[in-house]
Amino acid sequence: MESLVFQENVTACDVCDLVHTIPPLKRGERFVCERCGHTLLSFREHVEKHIFGTGFSSLLMFFFALLFPFLGFSNNGAERSVTLYNIVSILIIQDYLVLSILVSLAIFVFPIAYLVTVLILVWSFNKPYIGLATKCYLTRWVVVIQPWLMVDVFLVGILVALVKMNSMADIQLGLSFWAFCAYVLLLLKTVSLLDRRWLWNQVVGQAPQHHIDLPPKQASQQGLIGCHFCGATHPDTAHHCSRCGHSIHTRHPKSLIATIAFLIAAVIMFIPANVFPIMHTTFIGGEEPSSIMEGVLLLWSLGSYPVAMVIFFASVVIPLAKILSLSWLCWQCAYPTERETLPKIKLYRITEIVGRWSMIDIFVVAVLTGLVQMGNLIAISPGPAVLSFAAVVILTMLAARSFDPRLLWDNENRVVSDLLLEEKSNG
Prior knowledge:
This protein is an alpha+beta fold. 56% of the residues lie in helices and 12% in strands. It has helices spanning 47-67, 84-93, 97-123, 132-145, 151-166, 175-193, 196-203, 255-275, 292-301, 305-334, 341-354, 360-371, 385-402, 406-426, and strands spanning 10-12, 19-21, 30-32, 39-42, 71-75, 78-82, 170-173, 224-226, 233-235, 279-283, 286-290, 373-374, 378-382. The chain has a four-stranded antiparallel β-sheet. The model is unreliable at 415-424 (pLDDT under 50).
């Protein structure tokens, strides 16, 4: 019989706070929350070998992506090719430092740091070469950085940039482009293989054991706190997780205040992001600025309907929908209604997942700036709206992460309790 790979007593759902007794899990099995459907634990066959294989292969593909030409184009006999590194270096040379930092973090710093850290942790399982404190620090780094990985968004941004360029020049895809595609796919596979609770269980060991009441209740109703970092549960008198060392709270302190503050800042930045040009195009000495909507209309006029719709939804619809959705969820927390909580949770999950895809337009501008630099003949440079729009994306992502969905379930419990009391009093 196959040996167990995860043995732990209980855990609390990150989304609804329901405490679950974890059954003994084997490879290939997963465990979901019975109330909200959130996946709590997931394992694959030979997960350690797969993580090490895909992670190392992803690093290798990234190394190849740096060696050869990445993209090239030709226009009226003039030719130009760039490497992946050139996209960032040209932004630095032209004094677009903040934009270069954003691109560097997206395609260089965060993904490589994530892969290297994961490989070190998997290699160090059951080995004394690295101290426990160091392992905990590295594992916390993996948990923090994972939501900010955007290589897949950057790849889609490259494809959109190529569609925009196809109308004015001939595009060549270099060897590094295909290596970068493989790097992105392998990185995404590595992320999908890595389960946060499983990783903490392997690195540090089992969480504290507890006996819970049946039927299952929220952790706050059983005198427990669930750690959002490692999934361990502790008495509600604890202030720090005994396994990962992270501070723990029954509910995120000032969650609604932080979320609303981020949303207000995002709304303020959304105005200049759509009013001012996001890109300047110089063609035979003439300069033409274009805003986000002007770029969408240009793609539509060129017949690139799918790409125009992608940019429209990613750069206009998603940021607005995210701001409105989170604002409505905050309102529901402050003034609860009898609406079912599960649809609200589904809305929150969608909002959290799609938010980072709004960075497509930022990456499109960065790629075009690095590629199209041919003096007065043709050149592209970022406009003043780039940083404003990047701020909108980051602020809405921070708003989603600061929002505590467990507050919605707390309100549902209050509404149910009030209805029961009302029925008893009427009876």
